[in-house]
Amino acid sequence: MTVSSDKLVSLDTIREAAARIAGVAVRTPLVRAPFLGVAGQVWLKAESLQPIGSFKLRGAANKILQLTPEEIRRGVITYSSGNHAQGVAYAAREVGAKAVIVMPSNAPAIKRAATLALGAEVVEVGMASSERLAKSDELVAKHGYVVIPPYDDEAIIGGQATCGLEIVEELPDVDLVLSPVSGGGLLSGVAAAVRQLLPQAIVVGVEPELAGDAAESFRKGEIVTWPAELTSRTICDGLRTQSVGVRNFAHIQAYVDRIITVTEAEIRAAMRAIVAVTRLVPEPSGAVTTAALLFHAAELPAYRKAVAIVSGGNVAPEMLAEVLLEGG
Questions:
Q1: Pick from 324, 323, 315, 281: nearest CA to 109
Q2: Strand ranges for 234-282 from DSSP E
Q3: Which of 34, 88, 206, 249 has the fewest CB within 10 Å, making it most exposed?
Q4: Residue 205, class by beta-carbon neighbours within 10 Å (0-12 exposed, 13-18 middle, 19+ buried)?
Q5: Closest among 108, 258, 74, 264 to 177, alpha carbons compared
Q6: Rounded to 10 degrees, what is the CA torsion of 299, 209, 51, 72?
Q7: What is the spatial distance between Cα 279 and Cα 225, in angstroms, rounded to a whole number?
Q8: Which among 77, 135, 137, 141 is positioned nearest to 105, based on CA atoms?
Q9: Which of 96, 255, 76, 207 is nearest to 150 (CA)?
Q10: To the nearest 10°, the Cα dihedral for 303, 307, 313, 315?
Q11: How far apart are the C-alpha atoms of 68 and 20, rounded to whole Å?
Q12: In this predicted model, what pLDDT tens digit does every residue of 73-104 receive, in sequence order?
């Protein structure tokens, strides 16, 4: 499957999504983050402050709020390690739809519990993304559920793009935006919004080097798939997807300037820095962009004003305590 340039999400589509989800997702703040030793001014886009603690609510709400009454009656299903699961469960509850979530066995307990608390049914499978997709297909065939994809979907991309729209509206002279990348929903949407509004701005994707399939794909100009036993090594449970989506990669190729990788130690140090400087609580996946600013300046362009997206804050208390104590 290829995606032509006229199939990329437009600014009109993004603005329509912003209006649609306004009653479900919140407009998150930009928080100044004066990190020592970092050139330029830095703000963090605090998606950890969404009602579910993650940006994923944006895309899920945009998709679910466009369902017909008949589709709502059928119920919805998705496959997710946690944050998209919560987004779908939350948005489905808003419209009165049943939500079924296919989760990997290594999903964090805190995310599984939160999904259940939102009223969703959880079906557990193995660690591979392919296993989640196969089980979802099986349940759709059996029950007729409507699939809410995690990232490779125009409505999902349009919803996530509202994050980029907000960044530019609040900081119209931003010249560098950094977004985590896994399946590519957030990066593709944010890049589409930012670059269509500010063609001169630089958009950079960041991912763990232990799950560096997107960086390899970007470098080779074609989608590369990594096995689950490799991507599951990273502490960033939200960034373990084995490949970027087809629609997402088309947006990335059109709008993203580069994708860089960061180490596990850098991610943990970035979590400590975010807590110390801003008092925001990031999950590991949400700290990769700060890790890039702190430790990979040589791979970034010169900038005056940068925004690093903290994509989520759903970190297990024991993991947060462990990471913070490492810096003591």
A1: 315
A2: 258-262
A3: 34
A4: buried
A5: 258
A6: 120
A7: 36
A8: 135
A9: 76
A10: -10
A11: 15
A12: 999 999 887 889 999 999 999 999 999 999 98
pLDDT at residue 5, as a whole number: 62
Structure tokens at 297: 């300046």
Rounded to an integer, what distance in angstroms lies between the CA atom of residue 322 and that of residue 328?
Answer: 10
> In this structure, what DSSP letter does residue 101 have?
E
CA distances for 288 relative to 73, 182, 239, 240, 261, angstroms: 39, 11, 10, 13, 8
**Residue type at 322?**
E
Cα distances (Å, whole numbers) of residue 62 to 47, 92, 161, 233: 16, 11, 11, 31
Q: How many angstroms separate the CA atoms of 307 and 201, rounded?
A: 11
For the full predicted model, state whether its pTM sits above 0.90.
Answer: yes
How far is the C-alpha of 257 from the C-alpha of 247, rounded, in Å? 17
Q: Which of 39, 260, 244, 56 is nearest to 152 (CA)?
A: 244
pLDDT digits (tens, 9 = 90+) for 267-288: 999 999 999 999 999 999 999 9
Question: Structure tokens of 185?
Answer: 């929903």
Residue 78 to residue 86: CA distance in whole angstroms = 10
Q: Is 148 exposed, middle or buried (0-12, 13-18, 19+ CB in 10 A)?
A: buried
Catalytic residues: 56, 311
